[in-house]
Amino acid sequence: VSDAASATDAAGESLEARSGGFETPRHVAIIMDGNGRWAAARGLPRVEGHRRGVEALRKTVRAARELGISYLTIFSFSSENWSRPKSEILDLLGLLRRFVRNDLADLHKSNVRVRIIGERADLDRDIRSLLEEAEGLTRDNSGLTLIVAFNYGARQEIARAAQRLAQEVAAGRMAAEAITPDLLTRNLDAPDVPDPDVIVRTSGEQRLSNFLLWQAAYSELVFVPINWPDFDRAALEGAIAEYRRRERRFGGLSGQTGS
Ligand code: IPE
Ligand code: IPE
Ligand code: MG
User: Fold this and answer.
1) pLDDT tens per residue, the chain (259 residues)?
2) Are 112 and 57 contacting, i.e. CB atoms less than 8 angstroms apart?
3) For the chain, which terminal residue's Cβ has fewer other Cβ atoms within 10 angstroms, N or C?
4) What lines the ligand 2 site, CB under 6 Å?
């Protein structure tokens, strides 16, 4: 079943009803960028931008639920962000800890299912157990799925999937020819999650920075000029409106003109 066809499935229909007959993306992914620039523009330390960024995240999660989005993926810390100054890394890890401690109960009450993608093996034990707690507590929730990309890099994710498949082949349990795009997808960090319909990046930068490279094959890319701390429901609605103006072809022909 293609993504295009999925707009008519049961979930899609109810989403459309709720959003006034317009197609709501099933999966929105966001590169939350520009916290540092937001702070610099106000003469504040970078950490203040990150703090305000957490508030923008709360607003965005609420808006995503209200708009009937099924999956929201947020890029919160990249594999490459370890190259930042130690003090900023500690600030970001501290904010993650606080976000889980303060917001997990509310997310759970709102029927949000939390999932984590990224490399967990090399994280501190306390962070790892917080992430596990968030996933465990919300495992059976049926509302919005919030996928947190933490210590995430798409190339690393793809390489991990390739390693798992190579081990199967080396052990004689699988033929190399059995490796297909679909099988590789099923070995990624969240194998059952549909590809993002739209990837939004704030702060005006127009690049993916190693985010969801495999899953982004046919995602619409929407770049918004505002910094992440200024993002809110209106900004999300604006990005979705831009997504709706796009024509997704998936390599086929235009539905409008047949050309
Ligand atoms: C996004 O804001 C947050 C993370 C990458 C963790 P930045 O910290 O990248 O802010 P800018 O890009 O320097 O403004
Ligand atoms: C991407 O933003 C990572 C996150 C938003 C977590 P960066 O600010 O790290 O990306 P670059 O370095 O500008 O490409
Ligand atoms: Mg940045």
Assistant:
1) 344 444 444 444 444 444 444 689 999 999 999 999 999 999 999 999 999 999 999 999 999 999 999 999 999 999 999 999 999 999 999 999 999 999 999 999 999 999 999 999 999 999 999 999 999 999 999 999 999 999 999 999 999 999 999 999 999 999 999 999 999 999 999 999 999 999 999 999 999 999 999 999 999 999 999 999 999 999 999 999 999 999 999 999 987 677 6
2) no
3) C
4) 31-33, 75-78, 81, 205, 207, 209
* Cα end-to-end span (Å), the chain: 23
Has 33 been annotated as catalytic? yes
Q: Which residues contact 134 (CB under 8 A, 6 or more apart)?
A: 100, 104, 107, 114, 116, 148
Is the separation of the CB atoms in 104 and 134 below 8 Å? yes
CA torsion angle for 195, 200, 28, 116 (degrees, to 10)?
80
> Among 30, 32, 33, 206, which residue has the most ligand 2 atoms within 8 Å of its CB, making it the best to mutate?
33
Full-model pTM? 0.92
